[in-house]
Design goal:
Blueprint lengths: L1 H10 L8 E3 L5 H11 L5 E3 L2 H6 L7 E5 L5 E6 L4 H12 L4
Parallel strand pairs: 1-2
Antiparallel strand pairs: 3-4
């Protein structure tokens, strides 16, 4: 989560938007407290089973990269290393011809 916050701060001016979807049972206050404790300023939505099914998410955590055209470019199940995430962010931010 903190990696995404740092990437948002670094690549936000280039168009990166980070949206966190919290799946499972959690109270809004608990999520807010968790985010505040980690210094996360990205929007956090409460997801439902329908949201997970809509994006084909079968494993958590999962990262979904959405291109500038609004279409899902890639779904990556499981936790990944920072360098891999950053490389995918850079690729997603590249202009498409």
């Amino acid at each position: 989560m903190q990696w995404f916050e740092r990437m948002h701060n670094r690549y936000g001016p280039q168009g990166l938007q980070v949206l966190v979807i919290k799946m499972g049972n959690a109270e809004k206050g608990d999520i807010t407290e968790y985010a505040n404790n980690l210094g996360i300023d990205n929007p956090i939505l409460l997801g439902t089973e329908h949201v997970g099914d809509s994006y084909g998410v079968r494993v958590l955590p999962a990262t979904i990269y959405v291109g500038r055209d609004g279409k899902v470019a890639e779904k990556v199940p499981g936790a990944k290393e920072h360098d891999e995430l950053e490389a995918k962010v850079k690729k997603a931010l590249m202009p498409r011809c």
